[in-house]
């Protein structure tokens, strides 16, 4: 079985749909992991291999499985909006946090991935979440010099909330 799991992980890394599908059909674990705790879903998401991600979702792989550092496939998909959408549609936790409290929104902000930031916001990411250092997504963007993302997030953090009471 371990050989099939290794074939699945290799196929997920390389984006080889046929090999990934064959590995699953022959009995590879849909949640096979590397020594670091990355699943096939993690490695496919990291490389933006949308077809592999969808194959794994269809096989009911865990979209919220975390590695030893608490990193989820959604964290790994930052910069690949279509992959992020597939994961979120399959039930990925938009606010999953690493062992240091870093959410996908914080990662997207720090990496300057505006499209990913917007997608996460539309999907309900919590702007007010703080990591273990007390930093928000806006702080992460500011620290990395991502001024456009910082302005967007900082403006949203300080926007008054209208509960429909008029005026």
From TrEMBL:
Coiled coil: none annotated. Pfam families: Ank (PF00023), Ank_2 (PF12796). InterPro entries: Ank_Repeat/CDKN_Inhibitor, Ankyrin_rpt, Ankyrin_rpt-contain_sf. PROSITE patterns: ANK_REP_REGION, ANK_REPEAT. ANK repeats lie at residues 36-68, 100-132. It comes from the Bacteria. Keywords: ANK repeat, Repeat. PANTHER family: ANK_REP_REGION DOMAIN-CONTAINING PROTEIN (PTHR24201). This is Uncharacterized protein. The lineage of its organism: Bacteria, Pseudomonadati, Pseudomonadota, Gammaproteobacteria, Methylococcales.
